[in-house]
Records
---
Amino acid sequence: MRLIPVFAGILLGTSVLPAGKLSLIKSNDAPSKALTAQVSCENRFFRAARAKETTGGPEHQVMRRVASAFGRRDIPHFYIAEEGNNAAYIAGSSSVDGKGKIVISRTFIKLLANTLALEGILAHEMAHLVSDDGACGCDQWIMRDPMQEKAADALAAKAVGYGPLRAFFLRIKETQGGCSMEMDDRLQAIDALEKMERNQR
Ligand SMILES: [Zn+2]
C-alpha cells in the first residue's frame, strides 16, 4: 500500500528503501490546531488502510501484555488494517490523548503466524511509540533508519525480553526464503546485546 504515512514500522518487501530520515518540519501551529491536524491526518490514514480499532481478541491481548511490559498503564489504541502488509505506530499520536496508536494489518498478523513473533513486532512498535518525540506528525514520512530500528529493538528487548524479537526476525527471514540481510543484521545486534548483558551479570 502506498498511502501509509508512517514508515517507522516494518514494511515487507521494501528493503530497497533508502535509509535515513527525511527532514522533519517542526510545526509552529498553535497546539489546538496541531491537534486537529493530527486527528484528521490519522483519520485519513485509517480510512485509506481500512483500519478499525480493536479492543479485544488474541492480538489485543498481546498488545496489552506488551504495554504492561513497558510499564504503561495506558494501552495504546490498537488498530487492525484490512489493507497493506505492515505494522506501524502513528507518529505524533500520543499528543491526542497520551495513549498513542499502533496499527497492524491482518495480512501481517497471518504472515507472522505465531504469538511470540507478534509480541516481537508489537514491542518494536511500542518502543518507537514511547520514544516518539512528538515533533513529527502522522503525515510526515519517516524512512526506516537502521540505527533507529536497532535502538527500537534494544528498547523492546529490555521490556519483553529477547525471545519475542528473535521469533519475529526469524519468522520474517523465513517468509523471505530464509535469506534476509536486514534480519540477520538485527538478529546479530540483539545477540550481541544479550551477550553483553550476560557478561555484566
Ligand atoms: Zn521500526
---
Amino acid sequence: MADTNTPPICDYEQSPYRTAFWEGQGRDYEDQSERVALRRLLPPRGRRLLEVGAGFGRLTNEFDGYDQVILLDYSTSLLAEARQHLGTSDRYRYVAADIYRSPIADGCCDAATMIRVIHHMADAPAALQQVRAALAPGAAFVLEFANKRNVKAMLRYLLRRQDWSPYDLTPVEFVELNFDFHPRYIAHALEDTDFDTQRRLALSYLRVDLLKRIIPTRWLVAIDSILQWSGQIAPFSPSVFTQNIAAGSGPAGALDGPIFKCPACRSTALDIQDDRIRCQQCLNQYVIRDGIYDFKIPIA
Ligand SMILES: C[S@@+](CC[C@H](N)C(=O)[O-])C[C@H]1O[C@@H](n2cnc3c(N)ncnc32)[C@H](O)[C@@H]1O
C-alpha cells in the first residue's frame, strides 16, 4: 500500500527558479559546462529517457536523440513552464510526482538523468533505488551531485572557517534540505542500488565570481572541459557528474510496456482517460491537468 513515510521534499511549487537562478543570472558557464558533461556521458540516442527533477526543462533539449522523454518533477508550476517552451508533443510526458514514490513503471526506460536534484534528497539511496527500478538492465544513468570534498571547503576547513569536515563521509546539510555529498558516499550508494559507475567528471572548478567576470564564458567552458577529466582520478570540484550503468536484472520486455505504475500499490494496470488515471488494483485515482500527469496525491 501507499508508503506515506517518505522523506521531506524541497518544494519548488511557484518558485521563480528559471528567472531568479538561470536566465540573465550569470550562470552561462555552469549551464554550458553541464551540457558538455552530458554529451560526454549520455548515449546520444535511445528509446525512453527519464529526467528526474527536470524543473522547467532547462536541459531537456540535450535529449533530442531519444524517442520519448519523461520529465518528472514535484513542481507542477515548473513542469507547466517546461511544457510551455517544449510543447505538447507526445514525445514528452510531463509527470508531477515525488521521486521517493515514483509512478514510473519498472524497467521502462533505457536512460535517466538527475542533475542538480540529489542535493535536495535527505535519503539519497532511497531516491536512487527508485531511479534504478525505472531502468532496464544496461541503461545509462547520469547523476550529478554537489561535492562536499571540494577545494573551497577543504581550504575553509583548514583555516577553521567551517566546522564540518569535507573528508567525513556523512552528507552535510548546509541549508535545510540542501546537501553536499562525499564522492565515496555517492559511490557506495550507487553500488548498493545496483549501478556500475563507469566515469566521473569534475565540473565547475572555475565557479568564482571574479573569474566569471573577467574571462569570456567560452574560455571558461573550454578550460572546464579539460579539467572535467580529472574527476576520473579524484574530484575536488563543487559539482561531479557520474556515468552509471544499471546492473542486475529487470522485468523482460518492459521497454515496450506501459510507462506508469500506481505509486501507491505499484500496479501497472492503470486505466488512463482524458483527465484522470484510475488504478484498477487499489482504485486510487490521479488527475491529468493541462497535459501534466499528477501523481502527487490521489484525488478523492
Ligand atoms: C535545482 S532544481 C534542478 C532542475 C533541473 N534539473 C536543472 O538542472 O535545471 C531541483 C529540482 O528538483 C525537484 N525536486 C526536488 N525534490 C523532488 C522530489 N522529491 N521529487 C521530484 N522532484 C523533486 C524540484 O522541484 C526542482 O525542480
